[in-house]
Write a structure and sequence with these properties.
By secondary structure, the chain is an alpha/beta fold. It has two domains: 207 residues, 2-enoyl-CoA Hydratase, Chain A, domain 1 (Alpha-Beta Complex), CATH 3.90.226.10; 47 residues. 47% of the residues lie in helices and 17% in strands. It contains eleven helices and eleven strands. The strands form two sheets. It has a seven-stranded mixed β-sheet with strand order 1-2-3-4-6-8-11, with helices on both faces. It is globular, with a radius of gyration of 19 Å.
């Protein structure tokens, strides 16, 4: 059971679980294979800001329809843009949306239940975790259209799979199956489509079992370390903050008493 909030728009909605712990962002442009437009990207950024201001502890990103997660950018919406428009509007708006998603303090899971091409894969890469159906396919095929990945795909794919494999994905436009994407380190988990929700539920339970503030601090520490920030400074600050929480006291007490911890996010 879940209690939906007011829709951000008709194409992007945010829904919270009954306990408020999980926020689900749904992109619904199924009639166009969830192809991304400027307006939809702006709405996605708005949805991310809403979730950031909420008390949710986990974010799940889904898309509507069957067989396709997201085919990427809507070609009809950028094909006639000028060079200035491509730079100023199209690329910038996509980065704004995906950076807002990637920058959430809460961990996020993309549920890739079908084809994820171009900007669709970049959307999934902006999440912390990706759970993919074994029948799905992912690719960064932009060079076949005469352009390049524009919404963080080159950076995030390289971070996950390394330079050589990122080049193979982008330059040869290679499509990866769910199993191949897992073997390459591009995704977190793979399951047959009829078992996908079980895999999402297991990962969600693991993420929600940790102390909420500690999980969010740890995510930010890891992201900062990847950007070159010194852990000796940030871990000391984050550890000091965690030491002041009720959740640390509860975690220690639960460990000593050999029982599950009951974290309160305080």
């Amino acid at each position: 059971m879940s209690t939906p909030t007011a829709a951000v728009t008709e194409q992007v909605t945010v829904e919270y679980s009954q306990d408020g712990h999980t926020a689900t962002i749904l992109i619904d442009r199924a009639s166009k294979l969830n192809a991304l437009t400027l307006g939809l990207l702006e709405d996605l950024a708005t949805a991310a800001r809403e979730v950031a201001a909420s008390t949710a502890r986990l974010v799940i990103v889904r898309t509507a329809g069957e067989k396709v997660f997201c085919v990427g950018a809507d070609i009809n919406h950028f094909a006639d843009l000028s060079a200035a428009g491509m730079w100023r509007d199209w690329i910038a708006t996509g980065h704004l949306a995906f950076d807002a998603l990637a920058g959430l303090r809460q961990p996020s899971i993309a549920v890739v239940d079908g084809l994820a091409f171009g900007g669709g894969l970049e959307l999934a890469l902006a999440c912390d975790f990706r759970v993919i159906a074994s029948e799905a396919r992912v690719a960064l095929p932009e060079t076949g259209l005469g352009t390049v990945p524009g919404w963080g795909g080159t950076e995030r794919a390289t971070e996950l799979v390394g330079r050589a494999r990122a080049k193979e994905m982008v330059l040869t436009r290679r499509q990866l199956s769910g199993e191949e994407a897992l073997a390459w380190g591009l995704v977190t988990a793979v399951a047959p489509k009829d078992e996908l929700e079980g895999a999402v539920a297991r990962l969600s339970a693991d993420l929600l079992a940790g102390a909420p503030l500690a999980v969010q601090l740890a995510k930010q520490l890891i992201d900062a370390a990847a950007d070159g920030a010194p852990s000796r400074v940030l871990e000391a600050l984050a550890g000091g903050l965690a030491a002041a929480t009720d959740d640390l006291a509860e975690g220690v007490a639960a460990f000593r008493e050999k029982r599950p911890a009951l974290f309160t996010d305080r």
